[in-house]
Structures are given as C-alpha cells and as structure tokens.
Amino acid sequence: MNGFKSFFPLVLGVLKDWRVIATLIAFFLIIMIAGFIANYSKKPPRLKSEKPVNVAPVQESGEAEGGEEASADEETAE
Hints:
Helices cover 68% and strands 0% of the residues. It contains three helices and no strands. The chain is elongated and about 100 Å long. The model has no long low-confidence stretch (mean pLDDT 79).
C-alpha cells in the first residue's frame, strides 16, 4: 500500500508534464491526418453537356387501358 501512495504522485507528475501533453497532441494530429489521407477519394469529374436533357415520365399503356377496361366490365355486370 505504501508503494502505491508514492507511485501515484509520480504518475500525475509525468502526465502533467508539458512535453508529454505536446507529444500526445502531435500524435493524435498525425493519426487524424493519416486517416484522412488514407480515406480521401476525388469525386469523378462531371461531364458538361451543352443542353440539359429533360426526360418526361412515360406512362405504360397497359395501366391506362387496364383502368378503362375494369370500369367497362363493372358497367356490363350491373
């Protein structure tokens, strides 16, 4: 127990030293920069066209005809 009481102030003295703190900050900054560089990827270049192409939504002909056929079948069933 006596060894722990004399060991604890020594550990606190080391952790509070400015050189240890500066080294830890530099270490974390280098690790963060290395991670950013390792995961960095450029976006692919966009192709520039002269005129933007507008595509209108196309309805399927089966849906429009199917609705009319269903209503016609209901009228004849009555």
